[in-house]
Amino acid sequence: MVKVVKVKMVKIVFDMEIQNTQECFVRLWLWLERTRQLFEVQKKLFCVRRVLQSWFGAEATDDFIWEVCNLASRDEEPIYGYDILPNPSLYPRKHREILKAIVQKTLNLNKYQVKLNSLDKAYSIAFPLSTPININKKKRTKRNRYVR
């Protein structure tokens, strides 16, 4: 019975085209949470490698997983395939980079072409009770532009 749920989930992901839009980002955030819940029930490790293998199936080769991890890595914080991921609704920063890297890799975009504002708004829509991602950013106005 558990395998049937996994097969349905993979099929649903393949039916959706990954796009650089807010609606697609909302679906990706929700699927990431559903994948986490599914892995928790199946007692599987919730890591980048398993998420990509469940979403993309045979397309998720070692090279594909390495490229997504490499795109998602920051200089001070590398991401590896078997790193355990936290709950996306509680700790969204790493997941934001991973979803951005998935969109980059599948659409062959560079990092400046992914709409981060849409990705952040999609997080707020997918998890309305969580704190928005960019809540601590200082809003820039004309008055404080030149103040240091």
Please provide a written account of the structure.
The chain is mostly helical and 148 residues long. The protein has 6 helices and no strands. The radius of gyration is 16 Å and the shape is globular.
- What overall form do the CA principal axes indicate? globular
Low-confidence runs (pLDDT<50, min 5 residues)?
1-13
How many individual domains?
A: 1
Please work out how many helical segments DSSP would assign: 6
Order of secondary-structure elements: HHHHHH
The mean pLDDT is 81
Span between termini: 60 Å
Main sheet, how many strands, which sense, barrel?
A: none
| Count of extended strands | 0
Class per helix and strand makeup: mainly alpha
Q: Roughly how much helix do the residues carry, as a percent range?
A: 55-70%
Rg (C-alpha, Å): 16 Å
Q: Strand-residue fraction?
A: under 5%
SSE map:
Blueprint: H1 2-15, H2 22-42, H3 48-56, H4 62-72, H5 92-107, H6 116-126
Helix pairs in contact: 1-2, 2-6, 4-5
Task: Offer a concise description of the structure.
The chain has 148 residues and is mainly α. The chain has helices at 2-15, 22-42, 48-56, 62-72, 92-107, 116-126.
What attributes characterize this protein structure?
6 helices, 148 residues, globular, 55% helix, mainly alpha, disordered N terminus
